[in-house]
Amino acid sequence: MAFWSYILLCADGRYYTGHTDELERRIAQHQSGEIEGFTSSRLPVQLMWSQDFPTRPEALETELRIKKWSRAKKEALIRGDWAAISHFAKPPKERSTAPSSVRVERSRDMNGNESEGLS
Known about the structure:
Elements lengths: L2 E8 L4 E6 L2 H10 L12 E9 L2 H12 L3 H9 L2 H8 L14 E5 L5 E5 L1
Antiparallel strand pairs: 1-2, 1-3, 4-5
Helix pairs in contact: 3-4
């Protein structure tokens, strides 16, 4: 029997991370609103990433680890971008430069000041 960790993209743009032993059934439960909580008020949801594991403890451990990650690191995982995952695993002060796969976006705040953000 396989167990799964997964990431869903909710309608409001937020990510939900979970684990299950029946991935297709669990996604259908989220999609129908059968599972009350985070996803039921953010429908529809879309499966963005999943990984199978031989045991439930491994799937749960992965879920709990990913839940603590930044949005940028989750998106790197979804893309399969290991350089970016490694980059975002370091504390911000220890990051040298962004890997080539990570875009640096510039934006202006309400006062017209320019700032950089990684995406």
